[in-house]
Prior knowledge:
By secondary structure, the chain is of the alpha+beta class. It is 50% helix and 17% strand. It is built from 13 helices and 18 strands. The strands form four sheets. Strands 1, 2, 3, 4, 5 and 6 form a six-stranded antiparallel beta sheet that branches. A five-stranded antiparallel beta sheet has the order 8-7-11-10-9, sandwiched between helices. A hairpin with a 4-residue loop joins β1 and β2 (112-116). α8 packs antiparallel against α9 (406-434) and α11 packs antiparallel against α12. The longest helix has 72 residues, at 329-400. The chain starts with a helix and ends with a helix. 24% of the residues are buried. Mean pLDDT is 76; it is low at 129-137 and 579-595.
Amino acid sequence: MTPAFVRRRLGAKFLVALLLVAVLISVIGFATYVEIQGTIQEEATDELEMTGQLRAQSVSQWVAGTRAQTALVADPQLAPNETALNASLSAAKAGGGSAIIDIHYVDTDRNTVLASTNDDYERRGLDDDESDRSSSDEVGSNWIDPLARLGEDSDAVTFSRRSYTVGGDRAIALVSRVTENSAVVVVSRFVPTFDDSDIRTTLVTAEGNRVATTDAAREFERTDAFTAAVEAGTSRTIEAGGEVRTYVPVEGTDWIAVSTAPKDDLYSVSATVGRNVLLLAVTALASLAAVGFILGRNTVVPLVALKEHVRAIESGSLDADLETAREDEIGQLFGAFDNMRDALEVQFREARQARHEAESSRREMERQNRRLDQFASTLSHDLRNPLAVARGHVELLRTKLDDSQGELLEHVEKIDGAHGRIDSIIDDVLTLTRKGESVEETERFELEDAAREGWGNVDSRDATLRVEDSIAIEGDRSRLLRALENLFRNSIDHVGPEVTVTVGLTEDGFYVEDDGPGIPDEEMDAIFEYGHTNSEDGTGIGLSIVKTIAEAHGWSVWVDGTSGRGARFVFSDVFATEERLFEESAFTWEHARADDD
């Protein structure tokens, strides 16, 4: 609930509006800051993850290439004698280019180097004591594990789990079987190209041992994310202390590429953008405060003065001073009230005159209503009583005449028909004068029952009534009977004694339709007008009565000229949509569409 002092004062509303806008700007600024921070940090993290994946992919490609190269070197057709074997190994090394440091041919039964591109290794056992080796012999100790993992698969290629140093170069030993008791060891240079100074990448084995690193002085720290990357074989990213790390498994190995970047470097753009957003929000708030003060002073103060003048006018004092030198909207508002004040006196006089005229009209309407009631009473009593006497004399005259006086009997029948016509006209006039009142007391009844009762009240002769669907209707039964009777007589009079009249349902009401030629288009607009008829004997009152009764119920009645079946009178707005009265009858949407076709 808004406090009363705010609701009643424009200045308070203006201040509250400024505060709300300030709060909104602050919220939007903070939300934007948080969103930008999150977006930029997410993008930076994505960049770190992509870098880690690209580096892991490059290592994976290098491993795949060296494996393929090692598999080519391990040719079972190597020459059986030592001279040819050394020449074959030298040719394979030359074909591999600078990537291959040495190639060794090993007897796996005796763990002895039989041939090598490096003379220091020939005839050396892999498990010799360290004291028996030259400075380069230490490389042989890194072959034991891949040779042990080689197995019996002739196509298998294994490699040392960690890189090591050969002549000052980082190297990896790859092993492939040549024969059942021999294998080739290819010592390849291992130089990962991790050149990004902001992102460090370390290769680590599944056991947590370093393979290679751009920062050998840093100790590797195993984390749950590292373990998850090893077990699931998928990338993992975490924030640890002041760093962000991405763990990416290297395909084809049991290595993990660990890419690390400092948060300050990785999120530096985020911090800069965040400061700019906050600065923009603060500037906007300061500008809003200045503009609010200026606008408030130049708007609220004159409006308060105008309020006091208007109160004076409201109290009846029309001499309030509304002069102002302003030419803007506030000045125009003062001018409008000044003009309004000048016009009030004229309006007051006109209002008094209009009130006097309205009172005179009301009294005149009451007199007319009394005359209309007197007229209805005259029709009901003063005309019908003499009419009843005349009809009695006609009936008496009919009994005095015999069949031989056929001409006189014919005249008697015409007189009796004229009496009936007069009686019908009296009923129609009474209906127009008394049935136009709105329906206040209603009852619920079936449409079919009302239709058949109304049909029984007219001289249907050889005509046929067909009721396709029925539904309960809330209305004045007697008035609806009168409307239906008029429609039935209208169909019989205009179509003929053998007409078929159909009563059915529409989407929100019902219709009455005959199988005649229909109503000409030029008569559609005037069909319900009082006095409209194309029959010599018609009064033009019957359809006007139908419309009057429908409108008294709050319904609409109209002629559907698109049915193509004859004259169709449609009563709409009879059923409320929310009541779903159609569910109580056999009416279906398919039937409704069939009626519209």
